[in-house]
Amino acid sequence: MTQESLSELMDKRRAAIDGPDPRATERQHAKGKLTARERIGLLLDEGSFQELEQLRRHRARGFGLEDKKPYTDGVITGWGTVFGRTVFVYAHDFRIFGGALGEAHADKIHKLMDRAIAAGAPLVSLNDGAGARIQEGVTALAGYGGIFQRNTEASGVIPQISVMLGPCAGGAAYSPALTDFVFMVRDTSQMFITGPDVVKAVTGEDITQNGLGGADVHARTSGVAHFAYDDEETCLEEVRYLLSMLPQNNRELPPSEPCADPADRTTDVLRDLVPAEGNQPYDVREVVAEIVDGGDFFEISAGWAENIVCALARLDGQVVGVVANQPRALAGVLDIHASDKAARFVQFCDSFNIPLVTLVDVPGFLPGVDQEHGGIIRHGAKLLYAYCNATVPRISVVLRKAYGGAYIVMDSRSIGADISLAWPANEIAVMGAEGAANVVFRRRIAEADDPDAMRAQMVKEYRAELMHPYYAAERGLVDDVIDPAETRRVLIGSLAMLRAKHVGLPSRKHGNPPQ
User: Where do Basic and acidic residues bias regions lie (predicted)?
Assistant: First the structure.
């Protein structure tokens, strides 16, 4: 290689890194946004990034594109490491064509996704683009189709994480929706199918971009986003943390780490943390914190469907998925959103060999016309299907009450939980004692001289006969009634026993889960 050719190569690479216009970088920073390369630098271990097709340029003609052929074509692709493990990444470069997707741009992403699937390593997309490149017409739309197809092929094979760091409109929003987790940054990232102008023209509603599809909207109202943060630096650091808890692919176990928290640590505070009265609220996250290593857990969709908690944590250094009813919100009932949230989390954990720990304190499904008309039956069936279909180790713990169909759905022994445990104050029944007495002893109560006294007596008898803490254990529906202080130790011991669990499944193309 001559000195001239080497110098030319270095000039081209420098142009690819700097971008076509220094002012574009200034404009990006003025919006409070980092450049694509700065974002990759925060996500990956220092010095680990290996770029692919840095000198790629589009081949489109017309509409002035032949005079604008910047290197990278508006997307940076490659791989590096996060905590020493390989991760593939692509990042839209908003400085070039507003990050819009064209034929060459899409082809780079397709190749990267194919490599990630073949290598069996996570894929992270850093999204900041203006959608399809209008000047390239239908070829740009076809590029999105190729991305969606590969998102689907990779689903359940490698972890896929979408990080929204700018606008994402129209069909482009469907790729993040197909991935496992969506991160957003407040004020700078938005997702919507039709923008505010179209909404106003069609419906007359006047709304801002953030009001329509901002981070908090999707993290709290729609459930599209799993995480929302105030700045890009925090967001990308949390992506790194999530990756540290995930396996590289569906053929591996999640990474373990040394644990300084004793496996046999007792948690005496749990004996008093959960009120004995079934209608008294408490924060189940405090229970989770007492049980898991160092009190540390990573909650998924914390702002949406708050009546159920889904989190990744570690027990004795091993990653587990925790699903827990949250009595502090809607008394911990299951409703449409809670069922959807938990079902997808259970499916994710099962896809990537993450054992499930379910903490049960559920009074039932949320009653109401809106819930029934909204399809609570099929939404609840999603959670039921997810648990029944899961082959990872599954342990459930009834903390206090477990009533009706919601008890069955929350990974009861009857739908395949490997180990079913309960605390001494548990109440497992078809319904609460008051409601049951009103049904079973309706005539006797109505005919009594003092209906209220008779009702109280019947409630007491029903609770003593059918709802005492050992009723389910005596019938083999609960494996053991344990001291709450021993919960951590028992869970760790049970998970160790189940670590080599193997389940043979019937031959089928795939199941047909509830819609």
Answer: 9-32
What was the pLDDT predicted at 197?
Answer: 87
CATH code of 3-244, in short, is: 3.90.226.10
**Cβ proximity of 219 and 301 under 8 Å:** yes
- DSSP letters spanning 355-422: -EEEEEEE--BPPSHHHHHTTHHHHHHHHHHHHHH--S-EEEEEEEEEEHHHHHHTT-GGGT-SEEEE
**May I ask the CATH architecture of the domain 270-430+469-498?**
Alpha-Beta Complex (3.90)
So which residues are the catalytic ones? 170-171, 405-406
- pLDDT level of residue 194 (50, 70, 90 thresholds): confident
Residue type, 101: L
User: Of 55, 69, 58, which Cα lies nearest the Cα of 143?
Assistant: 58
pLDDT tens, 490-514? 999 999 999 999 888 888 888 898 9
In angstroms, rounded to a whole number, what is the distance separating the alpha carbons of residues 237 and 43?
7
> What DSSP element (H or E) covers 440?
helix 433-440
- Smallest Cα–Cα separation from 313: which of 330, 294, 292, 332? 292
Looking at the predicted structure, is the pLDDT value of residue 475 above 70?
A: yes
